[in-house]
Amino acid sequence: MLGLNGTQFQPDTLQLTGIPGMQMGQAWVALVFCILYLISIVGNLSILTLVVQETALHQPMYYFLSMLSLNDLGVSFSTLPTVLATFCFNYRHVGFNACLVQMFFIHTFSFMESGILLAMSFDRFVAICDPLHYATVLTNSRILAIGLGILAKSFATLFPFPFLVKRLPFCKGNVLHHSYCLHPDLMKVACGDIHINNIYGLFVVTFTYGIDSTFILLSYALILRTVLAIASRDQRLKALNTCISHICAVLAFYVPIIAVSMIHRFWKSTPPVVHVMMSNVYLFVPPMLNPIIYSVKTKEIRRGILKVFYKSQS
């Protein structure tokens, strides 16, 4: 399976795997993944359509929500080809270069989601702590600049990854542990000196997840201080209620990441199925949950959905 590529041994194809111990129930696993993809794609497309069509939603908060939905669609479509091929058609091979491309896009969209959640926390901070200047601070041009900045940062930090992997020989086989390509998974089958990959990977994770999560926590500390200074209990609850959807989205994104990191570092003896399932939760649950969270908790989104529903019935 290994072929000579220049001066390095690299596989022509890599073999993907499903969920360990679930081979007999592969049809059910495929059904679950199809449902997750359907909910994610339909839900996020619905959010995007509503924000575009409803003029009442042409506000900074919903522009950032559109970025989140667009990014979640990117996450779903990045994993969809190999996941469906593995579970629905039992086709488990992917070209080496195609694997590197998929790895790049999966990690890029994941890091972009972190940046978008940070931008949304800034939106809530300005709306609650400085409401009189909300419209002048978050203008359309600044929102566009923030979105492009998040894209540029994620692209630039992830761009070296495929080349860092490409330089390595692969002498530990060609079998990966997931139904999609991830950088840590590729490192397990690579030979040679992977210190650069590990150090740069740690730097990127710290530079994105670490910094973003710190500023999100700081934003909510300032928001909480402002809210507690409000005399009226009803006004305090109203202000906090505008943050609930975003808090749920942050938890849905960061809790699986923290859980995966803890398992990889402190519970390495955990059965492989646990590692695989947690990685699947990290990639598949946030894109599915985000449109549900915002549809349930955001009054304006609910109104838009009901408006479209009643139009379709008439």
UniProtKB/TrEMBL annotation:
The keyword Membrane applies. One of its GO terms (cellular component) is plasma membrane. The chain crosses the membrane at residues 27-52, 73-92, 104-122, 143-165, 199-223, 244-267, 273-293. GO terms for molecular function: G protein-coupled receptor activity; olfactory receptor activity. Keywords: Cell membrane, G-protein coupled receptor, Membrane, Olfaction, Receptor, Sensory transduction, Transducer, Transmembrane, Transmembrane helix. One of its GO terms (biological process) is cellular response to lipid. SUPFAM superfamilies: Family A G protein-coupled receptor-like (SSF81321). InterPro entries: GPCR_Rhodpsn (IPR000276), GPCR_Rhodpsn_7TM (IPR017452), Olfact_rcpt (IPR000725), OR51/52/56-like (IPR050402). This is Olfactory receptor. The lineage of its organism: Eukaryota, Metazoa, Chordata, Craniata, Vertebrata.
